[in-house]
Amino acid sequence: MPDLSSRHALLSERIRTACIAAQRDPNAVELLAVSKTKPPGLITEAVALGMTQFGENYLQEAVEKIQHLEQLSLEWHFIGRIQSNKCKTIANAFSWVQTLDRSKVAQRLNQFRTLTEPLNVLIQVNLDDDPNKGGVDKKNAEHLLEQVLTLPNLAPRGLMTILAKSTDSRVGYQSVAQLHHDLYEKYASDLPQWDTLSMGMSADIEAAINAGATMIRVGTDLFGARTI
Predict the structure, then answer these.
(1) What is the pTM of this model?
(2) Residue 70: CB atoms within 10 Å
(3) Residues 24-42 pLDDT 10s
(4) Residues 6+ apart with CB under 8 A from 139
(5) What distance in Å separates the CA atoms of residue 218 and residue 223, rounded to the nearest whole number?
(6) Measured between alpha carbons, how far is 2 from 225 in angstroms, rounded to an integer?
(7) How many Cα atoms occupy the beta-carbon half-sphere of 102 within 13 Å?
C-alpha cells in the first residue's frame, strides 16, 4: 500500500499533467489537503512534504487538531456545512471558510471574528440544485457577495462548488465553465483578493482544472480511504 509520500508524488504529477493538458501553469493550482478523520501525526507528515493548507468538515475534531498543531504555520479551511450556532467557534479557529451560502451565517461570522486579519471566505455555489449539497444558486450568489462586501471582518476570496457527477459530460462541463466566466472572472478585476475558485476532488481533478479551478480539495487520493 503506497505511503503518504508516494500518494503525494502521484497526485502532484496528476495535477501537473492536467494543467499541461489545459494549457495552464501548474503553479496556478493549489492543493487543499482534506484531513478530516486523519490524526495529527499524519498531518505532520504532510507538512514535512510541503503541504500547509488543510480542510476540515467536522468542527470539534478540527478544533482539537488545530490546537494540537498550533506550533505549525498552517492555514485551516472549514469545508463543511455551517450551523449558525457554530459560527463563533468557526470564525476564530479557521483562516478560511469555503462553504458560505447564507446571509445569516455571513453576519454571524463577521460578528464573532475577533482576530486582526479578516476571515477569508468563499461563496459556495450549488450548480445543479442538488438538495444533498450546500450552496446558493448562481442567481443569489451575486447578491450574497454584495452583502459580504459590506462586512469588514470577512474577506471574499472567490467561489467554491462541488462538481456534479456528470461533469465529464458536455452539459456538466459547461455549467462549471459558465460559473468561471459569469461569476469568477466578473469580479476578478474589481476585487484585489478575488483569486480562488475551489472545485474538484479526487474523482474529478482533471475536469475541474480544465474548467478553471485554482484550488482542488483532495482527501482520499492523498491520505487514503476514510477511517471512520
Answers:
(1) 0.93
(2) 9
(3) 999 999 999 999 999 999 9
(4) none
(5) 9
(6) 12
(7) 10
- 4-220 CATH: 3.20.20.10
State which residues of the chain have pLDDT below 70.
1, 165-173, 226-228
